[in-house]
């Protein structure tokens, strides 16, 4: 965000402490940032305030729109109805010993009024700790709001204005009871996100999304990743569910939520390189809704995992079956990872497209350079591809995991039978080494990775099945 602010300053070529033009404020105030980490949000806000120190005379005209938010699953207000208030949104306040529901008039968060409602919150935020009573606080905040005939909250005769004032009065009472902690901050956060979802869509989204995979995520995130990939038709097959990548979920969900849908909106994402080559992303590589796609790749690691940069326009139009063929080949620029010097240009395309059935959308195999595709043989998938769910792993075992059934001859001989994992795919037709006598001295202890716990190991008996 700091770099974007620098770009804007460079564009306007402002001198030190010179008053910026109206267009500068419009540009700065239309920068938004999200992060799920509260420390990152506070640090970013602090850095932006420090950056704008030379504009301190005009700081009150600058909006720092950095919000605490799970971007792909933003919390929204719950809507209800009441006989006296009509439609309202519930703002629930957790007071430890109880939960209090404060009611925001439904029209306050409508498309016509939400921006003015956020202006009102911002104005209250500035004087919330200045006065010792609500009337003075309210009057000071209202006088600071620039008069606007479209601002319904400035007309105290309007029912919505009265209901809104009562809502903030209840919030102020919590402050007087020393129960006001971060409620105004959370309200501003929720309203800012609601504004973006409802009305104020972005022209450009730049992000480095989380690179977690499904198997590393908590249960709630796992369910969310499955649900979103299913909705967006990029969910991999059963064998690859545990490899769903959160970064790919972000790539498709974030523009769907926040970007303008007229085809002019653009994204710039830093992505794991698996987007281009891994089997779990075969559906994602159709790049539905994306066009004018460009890629950056690098000759060495920039992060601990190989990455690429993805640039594209976005248009929310229902994809057609053959749209995928218009996406490729994709222009890719290859950079030096340290100097960022351009090394070469290339074109990338899949070595094959395929359909699980004739009516299904195409899936896209890994991307390779166009000149390499001509050297490949064959250009089609095996006829057996759709007949298999997963290949077999045929590995000889040097150790036989077993269970000791009994001991005889004073413990010198043990009677064993094979231990079969509960994860085995099916019932064994024949158990080898079933109730076999072996020398106890040839039994040892070992463990499996899934049985390693903090400060504890679950041991298994193993036998070395060697012929004499």
Automatic annotation (TrEMBL):
It catalyses: a 2'-deoxyadenosine in DNA + S-adenosyl-L-methionine = an N(6)-methyl-2'-deoxyadenosine in DNA + S-adenosyl-L-homocysteine + H(+). One of its GO terms (biological process) is DNA modification. It is an enzyme of class 2 (transferase). It holds the Pfam family Eco57I. Its EC number is 2.1.1.72. The keyword Secreted does not apply. InterPro entries: DNA_methylase_N6_adenine_CS (IPR002052), MethylTrfase_TaqI-like_dom (IPR011639), N4_N6_ade-DNA_methylase (IPR050953), SAM-dependent_MTases_sf (IPR029063). Residues 29-289 form the Type II methyltransferase M.TaqI-like domain. Keywords: Methyltransferase, S-adenosyl-L-methionine, Transferase. One of its GO terms (molecular function) is nucleic acid binding. Belongs to the N(4)/N(6)-methyltransferase family. This is site-specific DNA-methyltransferase (adenine-specific). It comes from marine sediment metagenome.
């Amino acid at each position: 965000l700091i770099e974007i602010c620098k770009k804007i300053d460079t564009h306007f070529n402002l001198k030190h402490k010179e008053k910026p033009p109206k267009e500068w404020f419009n540009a700065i105030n239309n920068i938004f940032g999200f992060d799920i980490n509260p420390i990152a949000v506070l640090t970013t806000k602090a850095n932006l305030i420090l950056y704008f120190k030379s504009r301190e005379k005009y700081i009150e005209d600058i909006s720092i729109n950095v919000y605490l938010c799970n971007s792909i699953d933003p919390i929204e207000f719950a809507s209800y109805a009441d006989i006296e208030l009509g439609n309202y949104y519930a703002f629930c306040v957790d007071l430890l010993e109880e939960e209090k529901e404060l009611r925001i008039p439904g029209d306050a968060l409508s498309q016509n009024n939400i921006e003015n409602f956020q202006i009102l919150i911002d104005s209250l935020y500035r004087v919330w700790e200045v006065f010792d009573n609500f009337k003075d606080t309210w009057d000071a905040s209202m006088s600071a709001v620039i008069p606007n005939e479209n601002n319904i909250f400035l007309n105290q005769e309007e029912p919505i204005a009265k209901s809104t004032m009562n809502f903030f009065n209840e919030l102020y009472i919590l402050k007087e009871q020393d129960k006001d902690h971060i409620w105004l901050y959370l309200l501003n956060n929720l309203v800012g996100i609601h504004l973006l979802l409802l009305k104020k869509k972005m022209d450009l989204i730049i992000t480095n999304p989380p690179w977690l995979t499904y198997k590393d995520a908590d249960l709630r995130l796992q369910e969310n990743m499955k649900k979103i990939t299913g909705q967006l038709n990029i969910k991999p097959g059963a064998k690859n569910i545990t490899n769903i990548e959160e970064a790919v979920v972000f790539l498709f969900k974030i523009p769907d939520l926040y970007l303008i849908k007229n085809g002019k909106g653009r994204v710039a994402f830093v992505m794991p390189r698996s987007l281009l080559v891994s089997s779990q992303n075969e559906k994602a590589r159709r790049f539905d809704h994306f066009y004018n796609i460009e890629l950056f790749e690098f000759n060495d690691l920039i992060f601990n995992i190989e990455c690429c940069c993805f640039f594209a326009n976005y248009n929310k139009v229902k994809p057609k079956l053959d749209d995928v063929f218009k996406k490729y080949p994709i222009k890719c620029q290859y950079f030096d990872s340290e100097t960022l010097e351009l090394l070469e240009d290339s074109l990338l395309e899949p070595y094959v497209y395929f359909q699980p059935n004739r009516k299904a959308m195409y899936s896209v195999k890994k991307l390779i350079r166009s000149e390499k595709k001509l050297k490949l043989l064959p250009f089609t998938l095996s006829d057996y591809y759709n007949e298999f769910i997963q290949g077999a792993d045929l590995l000889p075992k040097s150790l036989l995991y077993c269970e000791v059934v009994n001991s005889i001859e004073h413990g010198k001989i043990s009677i064993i039978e094979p231990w079969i994992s509960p994860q085995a795919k099916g019932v064994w037709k024949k158990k080898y080494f079933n109730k076999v006598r072996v020398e106890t001295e040839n039994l040892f202890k070992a463990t499996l990775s899934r049985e390693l716990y903090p400060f504890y190991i679950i041991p298994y008996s193993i036998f070395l099945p060697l012929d004499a």
